[in-house]
Amino acid sequence: MTLTPTPGTVDPLQLVAAVDQAATAAELLRATQTLAAAANDAAPAEVIACLVGILGFNNPGAAVAAVDGLIAIGAEAVAPLLSGLDEHNYGARAWAVRALAGIGDVRGLELLEQALGNDIGPSVRRAAARGLGALRLDALPQETRLAVRERCLSALEGSRGDGEWVVRYAVAVAVESLCAPLAAGDPLQQRARLSLQALCGPDEDTDVVRLRAEAALRRLEA
Question: Exposure string (b/e) for 76-104, b if CB count within 10 Å is 16 or more?
Answer without folding.
Answer: bbbebbbebbeeeeebbbbbbbbbbbbbb
